[in-house]
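Hey all, quick one. A colleague (J.T.) asked me to put the S-adenosylmethionine job into the tracker so the inputs and the C-alpha cells live in one place instead of scattered across chat threads. No bug as far as I know, just bookkeeping. Sequence used:
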Amino acid sequence: MAGVYIHIPFCKKACHYCNFHFSTIKDHDEIINTIIQEIEINQKKISIKKISTIYFGGGTPSLVDTNSIKLILKSIQNKYDTSEKCEITLESNPDDISEKKLNSWKEIGINRLSVGIQSFNNSILKKLNRIHDNNQAKKSIKLIKKHFDNYSIDLMFGTPLSTIKSINEDLNIIKSFDPPHISIYNMTIEKKTMFEKQLKNNQLLLPNENEILEQYDLILKKLKSLDYENYEISNFSKKGLHSRHNSNYWNDKEYIGFGPSAHSYDKKYRYWNINKNKKYIDLINKNMMCFEKEKLTLKQKINEYIITRIRTNKGINNMEINKKYNVDFFEKKEPEIDMLLKRNLVSRKKQTLNLTDNGKKISDHITEKIMF
Ligand SMILES: C[S@@+](CC[C@H](N)C(=O)[O-])C[C@H]1O[C@@H](n2cnc3c(N)ncnc32)[C@H](O)[C@@H]1O
Ligand code: SF4
C-alpha cells in the first residue's frame, strides 16, 4: 500500500550539517494552509486510493501547533482511504517535547514519534548547533516512552567530535532507554551548510575514514548484541517494529509528498515540489504546477532497485529483478559479484545477494560496482 509524506518546512535554528528545506520564520499559517490546498487539489493526479502510512517530516513538525497537524491529517483522511492500522509518524525535536504536546499528538491520531537526538554529548551537540542539550535529550525520551510504544531515536556518527568513546557512551544511554527503533546516520557534508563553509576554510576537523569505520563497526556490534535487527544500513529495530513508511520507499511502493521540497513517486514518474516557500505558495494560489517530474527509464528503475534493496536486509533478489525488469542481474554482473564474494563484502544465498557487515561499511563503493 502507498504512503503520504508531508514536509513541514520550519526550524527554530539551522543545524550546521543540515541542508533539508526549512525556514526559521515564526508565522506558519500561510504554508500550512497552502499544504492543505495542495492536498485538496491533488495537482499531480497520482491516483492512489488506499494509504497505509503518513509521515510528517521536516524541518521540524513538532514545532507547529497541533491544530495545524490535525487540519492536514483531516484533509488527508478526507481524500484517501486510510486503513485502520495506518502508521502515522511525526518527526520531533527534544526541545518541543512536553506532556501536553505528547497528549495532543496522541489525541489527533499520531501513533509513532521520531525524535532527533543526534548525540548525548554536550560538546558535540554544541558543535552541531543543536538547540537542545544532553539533559533535554534524556528528559524528552523519558516523556516519549511514557506516552508512545512506537518511537524512534535519530543519532549520528562521524561528526566533527565523534569518537569511539562518545559513540560508546551514546549506545550505553540508548541501552538504558531500550527504544523500539533507532536510525543512525553517518554525517555527510552537505552543500550550503555551515560545515561545508568551515571545511573549505580549513576550520573543521573530521574523523578520518578508519575512525568512521570503527564507529560504524561498534554500532553494528553493540546494537546486534542488544537484539536490534539492522534491517537497513542506517536503521535498527526490535522485532516487527521497523518503520513501515520508510520500508515502503525501499520496497518500491508509491508515495505522495505534499509541501515545499516534498518528493512523490508513482512507479512511472518521480516528482519533486519546488523548495522555495514563497514560490510554492504563489504557484498553488495561481493553480500552477508546484513541481517538476521525470519519467523513469528502465535503466533508472533497475538502478533504483539495486541502490535501495542492497541497503536492506531483504537484499537483491535475482528472481524478483528478473520478473520486474526482465534482466538476469546475477548473469550480467557475474564478474563484479564474484570479486565482491571473494572479498567477503557480499553474501549470496540461492537467489539473494546481501551485504555482509564488512560490505555495509563501504556500501557506496559496492553499489557503484553492481549498478547498470
Ligand atoms: C532533517 S532532520 C528532520 C527532523 C528533526 N528536525 C531533527 O533535527 O531530527 C531528520 C534527520 O536527518 C538526519 N540528517 C540531516 N542532515 C544530515 C547530514 N548532513 N548527514 C547525516 N544525517 C543528516 C539527522 O539524523 C536528522 O535526525
Ligand atoms: S537537523 Fe532538523 S532541526 Fe536541524 S536544521 Fe535540519 S531539519 Fe532543522
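Adding what we noticed when we looked at it: The CA atoms of residues 329 and 361 lie 23 Å apart. The first helix runs from residue 29 to 41.
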